[in-house]
Amino acid sequence: MKKTAIQKTRIPESNIFAVRELHDRHFDTTWHAHMEFQLFLVVEGTGTKFVGNTVKPFDKGDLTFLGPNIPHLWRSDECYFDAHGEHTSRGLVIYFNGAALEKLIEKEEFAQLKILLEKVRRGMELYGKTAQKTAKLMHELVHLHGMESVIHLFRILDLLTKTKEYRLLHNDMVYYQLKDVETNRINIVYNYAVKHFRHKITLEEVSALLNMTPTSFSRYFTMKTSKSFSYFLTELRIRNACRLLSTEEAKNIAQICYESGFNTLSNFNKQFKTFIGMTPTEYRQKFLTL
After folding, report:
1. For residue 253, what are the CA distances in angstroms to 4, 147, 187, 236?
2. How far is Cα 120 from Cα 66, in angstroms, rounded to an integer?
3. Which residues have a Cβ under 8 Å from the Cβ of 172 and sit 6 or more positions away?
């Protein structure tokens, strides 16, 4: 049986919140959701994160704040699955239960915190100095206990209530009530797509993974993710190209095109501009001038 973590609690009943340090070859490969709020920092590692129906690359320093019941997966790059490789993944995560703060956030002094907790029900990606300061505070929190740790947690939340350095990951709040069997199915598709997106993936082969017909699979995938599988696959390839364009200066655009799973440079340029709003050359130039 495949591991699922749907609605699995991460906080002991005796605690308001819990801090976890993650250190393994790769991050958990399970698409899952839980009732707690989650603030997750990538300390080391690269890959692709799936948050609700959003697909984005992640790297060291990536900081994401999620509300309850948003399915998510941080899928490490293939090199982290090499049993003989030297790559490792490290993360730092804070889980806390909004119910423990319910009475508190109704008070006037916590009005900004209430607004923040509503925003993160759509998923929030933090960047810039805010992400750097938050990461520092999170590392400090690991070593604190009792009242001191609670005060430090509120320092983090206070910082996040005031920042403008964030991007919301959805147009609407996401509420998913996935059954375990659905979680397993999406796990299979996502992990297969991330592993093989550099090559041609047909609807027939991916639908066969779930013992479905291509037509049934198409309907199922669109219903569960709000996008077609072909759109999802293109999005995955474009996000990989974005990562390479911003980090691999030695590779030309044609190399990045083919390494991201596109068959022709013209199609790559067209799709890239559709998704990102600029050409690959313009996107790369933006990073070179930083």
Report:
1. 39, 53, 31, 17
2. 5
3. 122
Cβ atoms within 10 Å, residue 96: 21
Multiple choice CATH, 197-288, 3.40.630.30, 2.60.40.420, 1.10.10.60, 1.20.120.520: 1.10.10.60
17-168 CATH pick, 3.40.50.880, 2.60.120.810, 3.40.50.20, 3.40.190.10:
2.60.120.810
pTM for the whole structure: 0.79
What are the tens digits of pLDDT across the range 86-111? 899 999 999 998 888 877 888 889 99
Q: How far apart are CA 32 and CA 4, in angstroms?
A: 7
Which DSSP category does 22 fall into? Answer: E
* Tokens at 165, concatenated: 């350095």
From CA 154, how far away is CA 18, in angstroms rounded? 13
pLDDT band at residue 66, thresholds of 50, 70 and 90? very high
- Looking at the DSSP bridge assignments, the partners of residue 69 are none
φ, ψ (nearest 5 deg) of residue 65: -115, 120
CB 228 within 8 A of CB 221: yes
Structure-token pair, residue 219:
């309907």
Which candidate, 37, 52, 34, places its Cα nearest to that of 173? 52
Phi/psi of residue 39, each to 5°? -115, 115
